[in-house]
Every structure is written in C-alpha cells, then in structure tokens.
Design brief:
By secondary structure, the protein is mainly α. The protein has one domain. About 70% of the residues lie in helices and about 5% in strands. The protein has eleven helices and two strands, in the order ααααααααββααα. A two-stranded antiparallel ribbon has the order 1-2. Helix 2 runs antiparallel to helix 3, helix 3 runs parallel beside helix 5 and helix 10 runs antiparallel to helix 11. The longest helix has 27 residues.
C-alpha cells in the first residue's frame, strides 16, 4: 500500500507543482475539475449519510458556482458567482419543495447547500491564494529571479505547509503516537502526530517564507495556522465518510482514495492561508 501511495505521489506532485507555477487559466481549469470530481463523490456519499440530494441539480450548481468563483465566466457575466450561487440556493430549494416527502426534500436541500459550499466554494480559495499580492521583499525571492509569475510562491508555500504537516503527522504519529486524536473519525491520528505535523509544517513554513518573500518569524505561525487548518479539513472529510459508512471517498487515485481524500486538507488550509495573508500581512486578494 505504501509503495502504491508513493508511486501515485511521484506522478501527481510534478503536475500539481507545474499547475501552481503556470497559474491561470490552467490552475483555474484544474480547480474546476477538482470541484466537479469532488462534487461527484460528495453527491454519492451524502445520500448514504441520510441527505438525499438531487445529484444532477447539485452537481450543476457546484460547477456553476465554482466556474463563477474562479473567474471562468467573467467574459460572459462578471462576478458570476453571486447570481449563480443565489440562483442555485433558490432552485435547489424548489427541488426540495416539490419532493413528495417534505422531510426528504428539506434534508436534500440542506445537503445540496453543504455540497455547494464544500465542493464549489472552498476549492476556489486555491486560486485566490495564487492571486495574493507579493509582499515587500518578494522581488528578491528565487522565484522572482527565475521570472516565475507573481503568486506562484503562495501556492508552492501552501503545498510545502500542508505536505509538511501531513508527512510529520504520519511518520511521527506512527513512531510516537499514543493518544488518539479523534478515535471515532480517524483512529490512526494521534495528538503526538499533530504536534509532529506542526513542527514539520513550520519547517515547510521556512520554505514558504523563502518562496513568498516573508521574514522567517512567520514560519511557525504559518505552520500552526495552515497546518492545523488542514488537519481539521482532513477530519471534516472523515466525518462525511463515517456518516456515509465508507472508508474512502472514491478510487480515483491508487493508494490515495478519491479526489476528496486528496484535497480535504487544502479545502481548509487554503482559506486559512488567505485569512493569514489578509489579517496579518494586510495582503488582501
């Protein structure tokens, strides 16, 4: 299993890093694909968890909201995410109203709104992070010297922070883990693993600061804020899977599960990075 996971990662990592460097429109199109694939898995899991969503209508809403939020519809309708989001809420409410069973209609509407927020809105923060302005000192970063586009450092830094946390939590948790973090949702995760994850994520934070052009004292804060947010995202997806009674969200990636299994940490970590940039650095998107 570990060998399969490593081989899959060897294939995926260069693709993800390449998309971060290339930026839009390729990054936005990739995130749209992530939203649709995650939405497909989510609309399959939610009925198993007792939320009978309309798959076709919900997937269409996820795709529309994601495309609008990613700016892919700006040539047709600027700021399209807001009218699409409002229209989706109303349309899916109508689907619920027309359902034969009011309880099923209501639960389906609630589930659809959750799916839109989870798979349609949160992934867009990956592109938002890639559009953050460069801080003072960014002109001296290695990326700037290589002529890499502005914003790539933020995405590459996000990868370093999340992957650092995941690696530290996994290996340190396996070696020293004694106290279960969330035994019902994810029996393998431990408190010791989280501590190790934060430490390694802080090391990844040093790389992120170097790439972005930030002072080194931001590294432990980024490791804590972004790393722990990613862990919460992982547990949030585990909550959905446990409610649905499945171990993995899908089988898209050998040894890694489905799309949600791969992006769950980033769905919470990316908004945390954007919030940190806005609140601490004053770098609003």
């Amino acid at each position: 299993m570990l060998r399969t996971r490593v081989l899959t990662a060897v294939v995926l990592v260069p693709i993800v890093v390449g998309l971060a460097v290339l930026g839009d429109p390729w990054a936005a199109l990739a995130v749209l694909a992530v939203s649709l694939l995650a939405g497909e898995e989510l609309t399959r899991l939610l009925p198993m968890a007792g939320l009978p969503v309309s798959r076709v209508a919900t997937l269409a809403a996820i795709g529309g909201v994601a495309a609008g939020g990613l700016g892919l519809l700006n040539g047709v309708l600027p700021n399209a995410q807001w009218p699409i989001l409002i229209g989706a809420v109303l349309a899916l409410g109508l689907v619920g109203i027309l359902a034969p069973d009011p309880r099923a209609g209501f639960l389906g509407w609630v589930g659809s709104l959750f799916a839109i927020a989870y798979a349609g809105v949160l992934p867009a923060f990956l592109v938002v992070a890639g559009g953050l302005p460069e801080p003072i000192g960014a002109a001296s970063t290695p990326l700037a010297q290589l002529g890499v586009r502005p914003g790539a450092g933020w995405l590459l830094g996000l990868l370093a922070l999340v992957w650092g946390f995941d690696s530290g939590a996994y290996f340190i948790g396996r070696r020293f883990g004694r106290h279960r973090l969330a035994p019902v949702l994810s029996p393998g995760k431990t408190v010791e693993g989280v501590v190790g994850g934060v430490v390694v994520s802080a090391v990844g934070g040093l790389l992120a600061c170097w790439l972005i052009g930030l002072e080194a004292w931001h590294a432990p804060l980024l490791g804590l804020v972004v790393g722990v947010s990613g862990q919460v995202g992982d547990l949030a997806e585990s909550l959905v899977k446990r409610a649905a009674g499945v171990k993995e969200s899908g089988s898209l990636f050998p040894g890694h599960g489905g799309m949600l299994d791969r992006v769950d940490s980033f769905l919470f970590a990316a908004p945390a990075l954007v919030a940190y940039a806005a609140l601490v650095l004053g770098a609003a998107p």
